[in-house]
Hints:
By secondary structure, the protein is an alpha/beta fold. It is 43% helix and 15% strand. It folds into two domains: 5-28 and 264-367, Aspartate Aminotransferase, domain 1 (Alpha-Beta Complex), CATH 3.90.1150; 38-261, Aspartate Aminotransferase, domain 2.
Amino acid sequence: MAEDPAERRWRLMNGCDRMLSGNRAPSLRERLADLAASSLPELDGRADVYGGGGPVTVLEKRVAGLLGKPDAVFFPTGTMAQQVALRCWAERTGSDVVALHPLSHLEVHERKAFTTLSRLRGVWPTAERRQPTAQEVRELDEPFGTLLVELPLRDAGFLLPTWDELNALVAAARVRGAKVHFDGARLWESTPHLGRDLPTVAGLADSVYVSLYKTLGGLSGALLAGAEDFAAQARAWRHRYGGTLFQQWPAAVAALAGLDRELPRLPEYVAHAKVVAQALAKLPGARIFPQVPHTHQFQLWLPGPADRLNEAALRLAEQQRTWFCGPFTDRAPDLACAEITAARPALDWTADDVTAAGTALLELAAAG
């Protein structure tokens, strides 16, 4: 029987000595051992029960403090957290219209849950592959109750506005009488580009969602932060949506460990991503977007097709025990795109190392 493609990919990736993009995916046993070995004091305490107490409450208070918000609410998924946030603002503003980008996570990756479940309606200030401008928000041709800003805009290339552009964008929403919600799944790594700390950035919005596994390497989960009355309303809707699980301490403990481990190193990752991007740009036919990454993630475009590049990446892992990146997807005629994440394993790579590995990948792809 042929090996399952996902199993092959996991096996080869974890057998590599070096990784350019992403992090190693540990086995379940390794994951459990890592949690058990943590020095977090919460491991010696009691578990949470139906959304309260234990490490869940500790995590909520810690993230609220990091974001400079009065309160934060734990959710099992970011999709649920954002559903609830937009629903709360719709109730408060009396408007079921949300202004957002068509490439936002809600439009592309959530099966339009905000429209089908919450009966909200989206309008687009722009369809360009960039963040919307303040002028586009001010001149939107119909009223809206909430402006959702994804920071960074992942599917457009992990793009961020400048700090002045973000301030103007929020101000434009205020002029329109709208609330502002930040989809900050990757907000953690956005502060170097914006040039401001987390409380200052989050302080622009009425509510902020952050992921606990993207960037931080947790198991799952999300936090929704805002004012105390907003958080109380969010907890009520979390219950209705089925998000108040009996116990969620593994996800909370993993997130607390991720805050300790990854948050302090993110500026270093963001800086090194620029080195990696510049080295990859030297490959024949390569395109980097954005040319200077805004976070520690960016898009790499190479001559396709994607299936040949993906097989070449697996062969590179087999032959040289080097994990390059993946997966590539076909995005344009004769071009395939992959997302590069310069995390801790990439810090050991010099620019010459990056270019050499990319050259080896293209040679394997050409050999078929």
